[in-house]
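We store sequence with structure; for instance:
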Amino acid sequence: MTIEYVISLDNPQATLETVGGKGASLARLANAGLPVPGGFHVTTAAYRLFVAENDLQPRIAAALERVDVSEPSTIEQASQVIRELFERAQIPDEVASAIVQTYASLPGNNPAVAVRSSATAEDLPEASFAGQQETYLNVSGADAVLVATRSCWASLWTARAIGYRARQGISPDGVALAVVVQLLVPAEAAGILFTADPVSGRRDQAVISASWGLGEAVVGGSVTPDSLTVDKATGRVLVRQTADKQVMTVRVNGGTQEQPMPANLRRVPVLSDQAAAELTHLAVQIEELYGMPMDIEWAWADGRFAIVQARPITALPEPVAPAPSEWPLPNPKGQYMRASITELAPDPLTPLYATLGVSAVDRGIQMMARDLLHMPEDTFKGFMLTINGYFYEKVKFTGRQWWLMLTRMVPRVPYMMRKGVAYWREVAHPRYVEAAARWRGTSLSDLSAAELLQGVRELMDAFALHLGALMGSTMGPSAGSEGLFTRVYEKMVMRPGEPAAPAFLMGFDSLPIKGEKALFDLALWCREHPALAGHLTKTPTAELAARWAEKGAPVDVPIEDWREWQGRFREYLDRYGYSIYDMDFSKPLPMDEPAPILETLKLFITSQGKNPYERQQAYGKRREQATQAVRARLKGLKRWAFEKTLKWAQSLAPLREDGIAEIGLGYPALRRISRELGRRFTEGGAIQQGEDIFWLEEAEVVALVEALERGEALADQTEAVREREALWQARKRLTPPPMLPIAEKYLGMKVDSILATRGEQLGDTLKGVGASAGQVTATARVLHGPEDFAQMRPGDILVAGITTPAWTPLFAMAAGVVTDIGGPLSHSSIVAREYGIPAVLGTGVATKRIRSGQIITVDGSTGIVTLAHEA
């Protein structure tokens, strides 16, 4: 039988034994009609002839005899000896001739090729050997191909390859290496695709990493690529994270080089949704061909994808286990509720917030009870906690707590009503402002890990005092005052045809309303500069969000207009961009992800959004007219009750919104410090990337900081991070009960009037709490977080778990609002009433029962949401 040293890429003889794992995989893909660049294999027979004719095997064995796997230096010494032998050896004439002739048959004159190593023990389901041998890109000319081929053969004996095989128990005697020579794809973009989520193990989702240029930077880990999670069945992008891509791999003479990413590409998404869907479709074909989850390297050029490698995913975790079905109570006799401040955390909490943040909130309540109510500081210790990762508050009190509340708290309530706002304004809020400003302006690079941790604690202490004071002085009293006024008005004052109670509390200024007016003012300024306005409205929001801060101006916008716009938008983000999407500080802020703000700005520029000044003025006028009309006909006790309760409610309503909007005041600095600590943990090998710090618990962060301070090795936390991410994903699929255990009444109030206690809510209607009157039928848009905000269109009904002040820009587009969590006094209801749109809150299951694009009817008067049968 004739021994073939070179065969075509799709040759039937291209098996694991003849062309190695990578080569066999590429041949299989090519024969299946997938877009694989053309080329040829240099078979393992060529490698064996090279080794035999140069008498290398005995000398390889002698070098390996001195290897001790536990001593890396011995592996390195053996590798150096063997590779020097390969560099001095000559390629047999028959092998060299076959390579040169086949290369010459490729299209083009001295075409650029990729020369890739392909070992016989490689790309196997049980061991991928990824990255153990070498690849050479942009090789041009026959002589250069021969040199690269020999270098690939030598790379079978790198230190990492020798050690890897030893740890896998693979004998060095039988290994051989083939080489794949392929036409180089002049990639405009490249990356990796996993046909299963490597963290959660979910097989129904693909995960894509993408960056500009050749794929070396992505594979080698020198660039933080864009990350996309795609639903494999539909091709829909579920999650998109556009990175600030610092470097790219480009072609240079005879090779490649890492260069700084051009400024105009750094923050631009690499793949559109359509391109991601197309790539995922190819990946699904590959997965079906192999019958298992695959790790795929791809490149994109001239509007087409090419597949340059595919191998089975190794060490893929099992799919996330079913979400927990039980809700274990910390105290079997206790009672727990998701209300008040917990509504601002709709998702399970990340471990760092669950251990650091929850204890801070708990501490803030204790400080409020001490300072405003003169109660022992431990009275409400343990009031805030988590169940299945979700934020709850304990609402069943001990005999001691009841006694202290009756004997100390109740007598002090009048004092708290008089002094609480002043305490928040003069003590708690200034301290938070000062801490946030100080750490925002502090250079972190020169601080020790212990000093950084101290900064986290200082900010959390200031946050705790602010939040505790807010809950005691404005949030609780505001809800109570509005409830009392509503009851007095409806029971003692209101006549048929007169406005509902909320009309008397609308039209006031608050921080979210001021933010909306500032954005509207910015839009008016943009209209005065037509080229700028045209660019802003025509550019896709995702691209605008990625590039707005770049130094260079777009070609169609005058440089002075662009720089002025940048300065004004940066000022806006500094003033309002810290408002939280989610109370968990691991989640991004509007200043981190400004796409929703830009979308609303574009709406205002094109005059599609409601003028907030006119809206506020109309509500203010309506409020004053309604107040004057009622005053004119009231006397005696009714007038006194009306005036007293109205004044109290009106004084607190805007303060409540201000306080909630400023919960995140210290979050920019807090996130910056945390990520700096995470970067140092990454350098120490404890975690894989800086953001992983949020998956650690407070005690683990403290231990890692202490190890850094002592100069000790850091404990590896990567497995814990992976397990916690998977658990978080499982818990996120749960619908947390608003009350545990469910009861019909709490403190004499009907629970279902303030909380969603309606279980699964099967059928075509969902029951919630009517929070803003009116009825509307329109398209539902289900948004799980800021990553979905770009899906919102004017006239859609906003469907969300809960909304916070950072969601306010979306209300300018919304025709109605439906939420899982919340009641008539929550932020969602207040903003919905300010915008005059119907709202049904607290359905419990809206985001799970309603589909984006479905037609629904929202009746904010009855609290009923009706679902259409067809999407």
